[in-house]
Structures are given as C-alpha cells and as structure tokens.
Amino acid sequence: MAELDITSPLLSSPSSYQPQTVLTVHDDQDSEPSNLQSSLPTTILHQNHNHGRTHNENGHHSSPNPYEFLRSGGFSVPASTTVDPFRNETPFISGIYEVIKIVLCLPVDLARLVLFGASLVVGYMATKVALAGWRDKQNPMPKWRCRLMWVTRVCARFILFSFGYHWIRRKGKPAPREIAPVVVSNHVSYIEPIFYFYELFPTIVASESHDSIPFVGTIIRAMQVIYVNRFSPTSRKNAVNEIKRRASCNVFPRVLLFPEGTTTNGKALISFQLGAFIAGHPIQPIIVRYPHVHFDQSWGFISLPKLMFRMFTQFHNFMEVEYLPLIMPSDHQKQNAVRFAKRTGRAMASALNVVQTSHSYGDLMLLMKAAQLQQEKPWSYMVEMARIESLYHISSLEAVDFLDKFLSMNPDPSGCVKPHDFLRVLQLKACTLSEEIFGFLDVEKNGSITFKQFLFGSAHVLKLPLFRQACDLAFAECDTDGDNFCTKKELVDVLRHTFRELDDDEVQGLFNLFDTDNDGRISRDDFFYCLRKNPLVIAIFSPRLLRKNLSKAGDKMLEDIV
C-alpha cells in the first residue's frame, strides 16, 4: 500500500479498492495467532455514491460506512468471554451453616484479632529498629538489619495464623536466588504478599500508593520495594531498569512480581504485564490456590474489611503454594518479552488448570466505574482491555473516559444504548449520516450498541492513519479567517453540508461540544481535544471535506507548517 501522507486524498477512487487477503504467520518457536488477522479489514468494499457498503462476516449487508473517507474498512468486535476473573463467588453470608459458624467463631475472633494486632505492632517496631539510621537505599540492606527483620517475618506467620491459615500446604521448593533471581506468582488475595514476606523476604514491585498505608508502608520499605505508577510511562521505565539492576546482582534479594497487576478470583489468569520478563532472567513461577466450599477467599470485587471479617470467622482457611520448575528464556525470547510472558503464562495456567484471558487491570477499572454509577450489570462493561491495548493502543484511562461518555447515554439494564440517546450525547441531529454512524457501531444490526462495540468503534476511528489529517483539514475549513479560532457562525457554515436545517438549540449543542473550555470560541486545542474524546464525530465533516480538493488543501497546510 502506498504511504499515506498529508497530501494524499482522503477518498480514493473506486478502482483503488482491491480484495484483501489476510495471512496469519506463525513463529517457528512460539506460534501464536497474529493480531493482524483481527485488526485488518476482512471485507471487500464496494462504492455506493459517497459511502461504501460492506459485507460482514456472515454475508449480510451492513449499513454504509461513514468513515470510508478515512480509508476505514470497518471493524469487528471479538466475542466476549464467559469468564469473569474478578467476581467473588461468596460476596454475601448465606445459608444456616455459615451463620452458625460465624456465631460459634465470634469468641475465637476476639483472640484472633488480639493476635493480629499484637503481631502487627511487634513486627512494626522491629522493622523501625531495623530501618533506623539506614540511608543507603540503593544498595542491599546490611545483614545485621536483615537478621532483625526475622522478627517481623515470624510476626507475619502469626498474622497468617490469626487469619485462619494454621497450616499451609507446599509443593516443590524455591530455587536458589542465584539460579532464579526473579519469581512471579498469580495474585488472588492480600494473603500472598504476607506469605512471601515470611517465606522468601524478596524485593517486591508495588504501587506507590502502598507506601502511605499505616504499618504496611514501613514494612514493605524494609523489603526495598520498587515503586511504580502504572499510569506513568516514565515510572514504569524506571521500575524495569531497577528490576534489571537488582535481578542481575546476587547481593540483592530475589525480585517478586505479580504480573497480572491486580488480584483475581483465581478461576483464571489475566494478561501479564511485561516488567518481569524484559530483563530476560530465568524465572520461577509460583502458583497459589485457595480450596474452599463455603467461603471464597479471593479479593475480587469485595471490600477489604468484609473479606477480613469473613476470614476471621472461619474454622480454618486452606492455602496451597506450588513452586513450578524454572522457565529459562530462549535466546530469541531474551529479546522478546511478550513471548517469554506468554510461555510463562501458559505454564502457570496449565498448572492451575485454568484459562488465561485478555483481561487486565483496566477491566477492573471499568467494572468499578460501572458499579460506582450503579449499573445493574457492571461486569458487562469489561472488554478484555489487553486486546484493546494491543490492537489500538488505547490506555485504561482513555477506556474509562469512553465509558463515562457511554454511561451518559443511559444504557438499559442489559447495557445497551438506543440510537436516540446515542445521538443526544454526541449532539447529532437525526439524519441519514447520523444513522450511518450508529449503524457503523451496531455490528450485530439489532438496533442498539454495547459499550464494547462503542469502544472498539471509537478506538478504530481514532487510530486510523488519516484521522489526524482529517482533523487538521476539518479545522482549516472551520477557521475561514485564519485566526486559529472557530466561531459559531463558521462552524454552522461548514456543517450546513451535513445538516440541512439546524435550530438554535442544535447549533448551541454542537458548539458547546467543541468549546471544551467554555470561553465562547473554539480554539485548535479545543477542536482536537473534542475529536480525541469523540472520534466518531469526525464523520460530520466528511461531506464538506469530500467537496474540496483535499490534495491542494494538504499542500497549503504543509506549506503553512514549513
């Protein structure tokens, strides 16, 4: 395909469209289905006046494509998995057995609570003594300070005992630090970090927010924690460099990471973050199980105080820890952290007898946002964010912004939005083009759209190579006097090619949509910010852009930039 540039016409001639063949190429060592197959168009486009009509995968005709002027071939939405990796199976106390057990355990609870509090205080004091006067945090903790930390480690075992983990079944043994400088584990509850602190005393990678937790923040500082802000690229890069430095030096403790990045219910593994695998060191996977009948111990979508209370009121809580064989990166995997992570994930999923999904921490953010806004089925808003990030490079924070927009459309209890509410939020007048925009997202052609369809469609348009150029040209059309601002009159003049009749309320609604800082005029920054947040709206400028000689417009813009 010819390289796309600013001087290329946004709408090519009908003869330029050719049938496309999608090839899936498998790696000899680690064959995985190529993501290209799901990201490339799988349809043949046919011209129909100014809009192409596409054929979907089942052979039925879809509505005209309003984004064909951006060379969009349409998009597909993968089927949703039936696995919910965050749902706790026993969020409520139910059944006579559980009630009787809680009543019988109440006197024991008091003793357990005293043991928990005493162990926490003693461990905290021992840690304060071990850290007193220690300033050189870039080098390993001196051995005499590490010996003092044994007091805290023993206290950690008493804390586990107070939570009902009287004995813990182990299978296998941890490999020597010299052989396996990095260990990774699935993450089900807050219990695993306590266990690993007692068992291995490793360096951990944790969120910066953990440092401010009373008592806990002090204790994890003694583990020479590597702090990371998951939303900051700079912080993530610094954390990876620190993991490499410590893993390559035997005087540091081994490095422990939870590559899922959050807790799950243990019924599945979710996608792995790559921090543990970039360094290319041998890794020992560890898996943790919590066998149960009446009480699910996972820290899924459930509050911490409630989970702690349930743990205190059990006769005994079961926990199994299995140390798996080392995974040595092959030569090509040392340069490819993605393949190394997939190989490790397959080994852990096989040992746990579960599947690994494309969910990530971003899905938990979406779940919590939907629950916070009291949606009837908040789990229906999970989209397997790792797949979205891989295909479209949409971050979790951007996905949450799109969810905010979608929820303002008043979805029904099943999580679907009808055309009227969709057009209302995007300030679109009901017309043929508006219907085509909605039909573009409604891939199942049932008259409503889900959040997953809205997110995939918005991300698809946002990441089209010509989207940025279309925004530039659209603003140039609106800025008729060249002052880098667009007035209400200029906006209406451009949109007359799209909406033949606009009343005052409709004009004001569209103007307010673009005037993001509410200063009474639309700056270039306002215009681009609006279209980044509402990429589907770019289609309303297509009639005006298609009437212009876009090659000449692109030449003029390039000349202005130079």
UniProtKB/TrEMBL annotation:
<feature type="domain" description="EF-hand">
    <location>
        <begin position="502"/>
        <end position="537"/>
    </location>
</feature>
<dbReference type="Pfam" id="PF01553">
    <property type="entry name" value="Acyltransferase"/>
</dbReference>
<dbReference type="InterPro" id="IPR018247">
    <property type="entry name" value="EF_Hand_1_Ca_BS"/>
</dbReference>
<dbReference type="GO" id="GO:0071618">
    <property type="term" value="F:lysophosphatidylethanolamine acyltransferase activity"/>
</dbReference>
<comment type="similarity">
    <text>Belongs to the 1-acyl-sn-glycerol-3-phosphate acyltransferase family.</text>
</comment>
<dbReference type="GO" id="GO:0008374">
    <property type="term" value="F:O-acyltransferase activity"/>
</dbReference>
<protein>
    <recommendedName>
        <fullName>EF-hand domain-containing protein</fullName>
    </recommendedName>
</protein>
<dbReference type="InterPro" id="IPR011992">
    <property type="entry name" value="EF-hand-dom_pair"/>
</dbReference>
<keyword id="KW-0812">Transmembrane</keyword>
<keyword id="KW-1133">Transmembrane helix</keyword>
<keyword id="KW-0472">Membrane</keyword>
<dbReference type="GO" id="GO:0005509">
    <property type="term" value="F:calcium ion binding"/>
</dbReference>
<keyword id="KW-0012">Acyltransferase</keyword>
<dbReference type="InterPro" id="IPR045252">
    <property type="entry name" value="LPCAT1-like"/>
</dbReference>
<dbReference type="Pfam" id="PF13499">
    <property type="entry name" value="EF-hand_7"/>
</dbReference>
<dbReference type="GO" id="GO:0016020">
    <property type="term" value="C:membrane"/>
</dbReference>
<feature type="domain" description="EF-hand">
    <location>
        <begin position="466"/>
        <end position="501"/>
    </location>
</feature>
<keyword id="KW-0808">Transferase</keyword>
<keyword id="KW-0444">Lipid biosynthesis</keyword>
<keyword id="KW-1208">Phospholipid metabolism</keyword>
<keyword id="KW-0443">Lipid metabolism</keyword>
<dbReference type="InterPro" id="IPR002048">
    <property type="entry name" value="EF_hand_dom"/>
</dbReference>
<dbReference type="InterPro" id="IPR002123">
    <property type="entry name" value="Plipid/glycerol_acylTrfase"/>
</dbReference>
<dbReference type="GO" id="GO:0008654">
    <property type="term" value="P:phospholipid biosynthetic process"/>
</dbReference>
<comment type="pathway">
    <text>Lipid metabolism; phospholipid metabolism.</text>
</comment>
<keyword id="KW-0106">Calcium</keyword>
<keyword id="KW-0594">Phospholipid biosynthesis</keyword>
